[in-house]
Amino acid sequence: MEGELKKKLLQRPTTLDDNLDEELSLKKKIWKENKKMWVVAGPAIFTRFSTFGINVITQAFIGHIGSTELTAYALVFTVIVRFAIGILLGMASALETLCGQAFGAKQYPVLGIYLQRSWIVLFLTSMFLLPIFIFTTPILEVLGQEESIAKVAGKISIWSIGIVFAFIVSFTCQMYLQAQSKNMIIAYLAAFSIGIHILLSWLLTVKFKFGLTGAMASTILAYWIPNLGQLLFVTCGACPETWKGFSFLAFKDLWPVVKLSLSSGAMLCLKLWYNTILILLTGYMKNAEVSIDALSICLNINGWGMTISLGFYAAASVRVSNELGRGIAKAAKF
User: Fold this and answer.
1) CA distances from 74 to 154, 256, 270, 271 (A)
2) pLDDT value at position 181?
3) Would you indicate the residue range of the signal peptide (predicted)?
4) Of 111, 88, 130, 101, which is closest to residue 261 (Cα–Cα)?
């Protein structure tokens, strides 16, 4: 009894100082995690903001060409291209999970294989999407859109095929680099690209009056310039641990990647296609041109703001998958 009493007396009771220590420890953990999050979130937000800005800038310059052209562009990018983005971005999200966990588990060479597998899956998916872009005019006419708008939209849609294939490289390289917290290069390339796009759009549409051809040529270049930079960055020695060159292993075990890609794609598609339905319904209104133009501008502004949320989503996904790859469930939950 006496021994137990001494033991109890020697035990220090929980005091206010202990609670303060725990609170300070929590604050340190939050601050440390916050810094790790911003390493990914900052460049990711800027990159998405700039990439989405390419579309907004193109729309602004096409607005100077004519009302029909502006309406057609709004239909193509809000309905057809956004449909493709929903599928491709959703499917590319599988790479975010796979690369993040592999990097956390220090299985570095696997990241390069995952990247190549994702290229294969997204390329094949894009090939299945091509008929939508080739037959845009009859599709829009069947959906009840005005004939004059549908014809111009068909021309813009053919140009947009180059943009869709640009998304394959853009989405996959971004997620591959984000998993390693090496995405500052993406932000630099995005800033350079949007600057070039503003200059070229002005030269080709305002100065030299090339119309839709000039606007779409500038847009395609703006999407491909960062892609070429990212590919060079990845393949020319900036990622020596995770990129070991092209490999035939990329063609093996594709089905698990396809399944994960499809499930990831379905979730994102349902969110993005909501705007598609709104634009299509607006096309049935009396003054369709003005209505579609106004709604598409509003949706673009709203989408531009959403890039901030998407940047944080990317950062959270990377941090969680990295910690799960390390096998530290508590850190992933935190």
Assistant:
1) 12, 36, 20, 18
2) 85
3) none
4) 88
Neighbours of 116 (CB within 10 A): 20
State pTM to two decimals: 0.85
Query: Does 10 map to a domain?
Result: no
Instruction: Select the more confidently predicted residue: 308 or 138.
Output: 138
38: number of Cβ within 10 Å: 15
State both tokens at 67.
């009302």
Number of domains in the chain: 1
Would 27 be classed as within a structural domain? no
- Residues 166, 183: contact at Cβ < 8 Å? no
> DSSP label at 210?
-
Structure tokens that stand for 219 in this block: 């847009």
Q: Is residue 319 part of a domain?
A: yes
Residue 185 CB partners (closer than 8 Å, separation 6+)? 177, 229, 230, 233, 238
Distance between CA atoms of residues 123 and 333, nearest Å: 34
pLDDT in tens, 260-309: 777 766 666 766 677 777 777 887 777 777 888 888 778 877 777 788 88
